[in-house]
Amino acid sequence: MTTSLQSRWSVLGALCFMMWVGLALPIYGGSVLGTYMTSELHWERSALGLLIAANMTADGLAAPWVAALVTRIGVRRCLFIGCILMGAASVALATWVSAPWQAALAFGVMGLAAAFISVIPCQTAAAAWFGHRRPFVLSVLFAAVGLGGFVFVWVMTGAIQGSAIGYRMGCWVFFGFAVVGLLVALFFVRDKPDAERLEAWENADRERLSKHRSKLNFPQPAGPSGTGLRVRDALRSPALWAIYFCMFATTCGSAFVIAHAQAHLRDLGHSPVAAAATIGIISAALVAGNLGIGSLAQRVAPRSAYFGALVLFGLGLLTLAYATGPVGLYGYAVIYGVGFGAVQVGPMVLLSSYWNLKVFPMLTAIGLLMQTAGAALSPVLAGIYFDHTGHYEPVLVTIVAMVCVSMVLLRVIGPPKSKGVEALPAGSHAGVHADTHAAR
To answer: Are 392 and 382 in contact (CB under 8 A)?
Structure first.
């Protein structure tokens, strides 16, 4: 049993590393790389927004395609494809790119690579290897992204500043991690465990959790299949669209931070090193948000926990708008980081709680498309606005207003009716009922 357990957790460790390569590196490392690239090549701020938008747009638009390929060719092969694409884009950035449109194309390929490496394949593999521990495992996957972000900010900053070739050294850092990711996927990732071993693990988890389940509001895991619920049935639920709007609004905020926060902080008088340091602080605080929302959801119901996450996220963005002095600088990083970590996990917990695994991957992919719209619009429009006015504050206030609308929708529109979740197995309605009770 010990060997089996070790293999199970080694797969999770490998998936966490792939989340590093596929999500943390493009987002946090890409933020540092894009900032230094546009500065060294003397491009306008709208070009900086274009890079991040191209990355996130390609990632989101590829999500349904990747969801279908994960089912057809498996998680492992999708990871191979993603690492190869990321390596190719890194080489292009280091050796070929000289104009903003070329950089946007390369960042777009990186976004496509991220779709093949990160959320959909890693969550699918984790769901195959874990049942009753699935909520915890999802939190761990996103917490790994926060830890990876903390590491990559300093790795990228140190590599670029300490090299004679400037931002191009950051491109080779991307290439190196793509190669390591390919090896990790080859030797450590498996699509699914042996059925008998999985059953033994689940029986042990079920026995352990049965002693505490009556005290928790957290839902039991939804099964791998349903009794007729289809994606189009789930799409009729107002609760689903409320979650999607929350995802859209928060992505507008996170895309702004990734693309423009460092430049905005420099405009407020902070040094480039101090501005880059906030990304590392955000990454560390993000881990607390990732893990904290799972624990909080067990006590106050998942939807209420997500509401609290939105409050922190909006407050962090509002602090960023006027982050003068050390208190504003580091206060923004901590508040926003915790809120951002929580709003990453919150919608995935709700989607997996309200609907079963038969529709969960595609609902996740559609949600990523909603996020893609925010990622495409926010950084580009913010860059254009800055080029015309010379400041960012009204953009941030507008995004905070959208987050407030999200909070209202989340409170007014309750969980789906019993008809919409009837495909969940026996016992899994507990979290939905608790959530409904908490909302009253």
So the answer is: yes
Report angle CA 279, 371, 303 to the nearest 5 degrees.
90
DSSP for 300-311 reads H-HHHHHHHHHH
The per-residue pLDDT for range 280-328, each reduced to its tens digit, is 788 778 888 888 776 676 567 778 889 999 999 999 999 999 988 888 8
d(CA 222, CA 231): 15
Q: Among candidates 276, 284, 197, which has minimal Cα distance to 35? A: 276
300-337 exposure pattern, b = at least 16 Cβ within 10 A, e = fewer = ebbbbbbbbbbebbbbbbbbbbebeeeebbbbbbbbbb
CA atoms within 13 A on the CB side of 149: 28
CATH number for region 13-191+229-434: 1.20.1250.20
What integer best gives the mean pLDDT of the chain?
80
Closest CA to 247 of 346, 314, 108: 346
- For the whole model, what pTM was predicted? 0.69
Alpha carbons within 13 angstroms on the beta-carbon side of residue 229 total 27
Domain boundaries in the chain? 13-191+229-434
**How far is the C-alpha of 352 from the C-alpha of 247, rounded, in Å?**
15
Separation CA 353–CA 44 (nearest Å)? 44
Structural tokens at position 165: 């070739």
Question: Cα(422)–Cα(193) distance, rounded to whole angstroms?
Answer: 28
d(CA 145, CA 70): 21
C-alpha 237: how far from its chain's center? 23
Q: Which two tokens stand for residue 303?
A: 């939807």
**How many whole angstroms separate alpha carbon 223 and alpha carbon 280?**
37
Task: State which H helix or E strand residue 139 sits in.
Answer: helix 134-161
Q: Which residue has the tokens 């194309």?
A: 105
410 in Cβ contact with 306 (< 8 Å): yes
